[in-house]
Amino acid sequence: MKxxxxxxxxxxxxxxxxxxxxxxxxxxxxxxxxxxxxxxxYAVAFFLLAAIFIAAKFLESKHSSVIADILNILxxxxxxxxxxxxxxxxxxxxxxxTLRIPGIISGENIFLFRKWSFIITVAISSLFxxxxxxxxxxxxxxxxxxxxxxxxxxIKTLRIAAVSDIHLGSIIRKRSIKKLSxxxxxxxxxxxxxxxxxxxxxxxxxxxDDLLQYFTCPKCNDGLFAITGNHEFIGxxxxxxxxxxxxxIRVLKDEMVTLEGGIQLIxxxxxxxxxxxxxxxLSLGELMKQADTTKPVILLDHQPFHLDxxxxxxxxxxxxGHTHNGQMWPLNYVTSKIYELSYGxxxxxxxxxxVSSGYGLWGPRVRSGSISEVLMINIKFTGAKTPVQ
Length: 389
Hints:
Elements: H1 3-31, H2 33-37, H3 39-62, H4 66-100, H5 108-136, E1 140-148, E2 157-163, H6 174-187, E3 191-194, H7 204-208, E4 224-226, H8 230-234, H9 237-245, E5 250-251, E6 255-258, E7 264-267, H10 273-277, H11 284-288, E8 297-300, H12 307-312, E9 317-320, H13 331-338, E10 344-348, E11 351-355, E12 373-381
Parallel strand pairs: 1-12, 2-3, 3-4, 4-5, 7-8, 8-9, 9-11
Antiparallel strand pairs: 2-12, 6-7, 10-11
């Protein structure tokens, strides 16, 4: 990413972040007399809470430490409160305006409305955050049964365990990666595929405790593949990708490998490689030149954009992640508008698509609009060659 683009991006993010915090600050100030009477204490306490997330990211980029990890966790919860605080306060303001125009509410009742809207907003937001945290730390296995009408030699079925968006770092650490390894062992797949964003961004928190050393799977020798996600490039692909590969994980970078039975697995470099490094990835058309479309072709692409291309070039199955299915309600409705398929299963022509909501998360350790999951994809190959007469 060019320097001026980074400056513009950071400026926009900080402006929005600041405005939302200012809005929430004044909602509390105008609703609770105790806060107004102790304005300085409230302002300092609020500023410290609002600054935690930014401070955590700054510290993480300079030097990874347990303190930075703790601040990331606390800052993430504040980020979740910003979302729900802003949303519910905005709804209460619209409701108050609607009631004031016809004179349904006036005078002292306005103050009471603001007081109770503040209390209710904090209470409901807290319930969303606590419930979302509990939901986030209990991953599930999401199973899909699909059929590909092509021959795969003697292979009639294939069990793929696919994991997207682990986001190893300050928040997703040893306990989570051990839990994932335990789930994969119970699933006993034929191959394991990591669909990008294995690392959250900055590699420091991962290297500090060598977090990937705790990742084990039943097929780590010849049946473990991965692709890059956008976060592998955010934190510096020149450090992140070699670290992942040092753990015996085969990262497919615009490459195709042929599995037993002629099953072809194509892994694409994430599209954000251009944004961060100015490097264009190969087009799908170029990658498909080496493929045999009479045999099964499985495409791994972190971000589920341009699904029509996969259908056009005869991909049988595409696996993606990236969206987190919005992660927190109501952002799942936003991602459903951005992506043709933001979560789940879709079939276009003869091409089947599966997009995972991911195992880990970004920012808040809260999932109020989606689930943490590992995919179990059971593929049945039914195609047969026509006998030679």
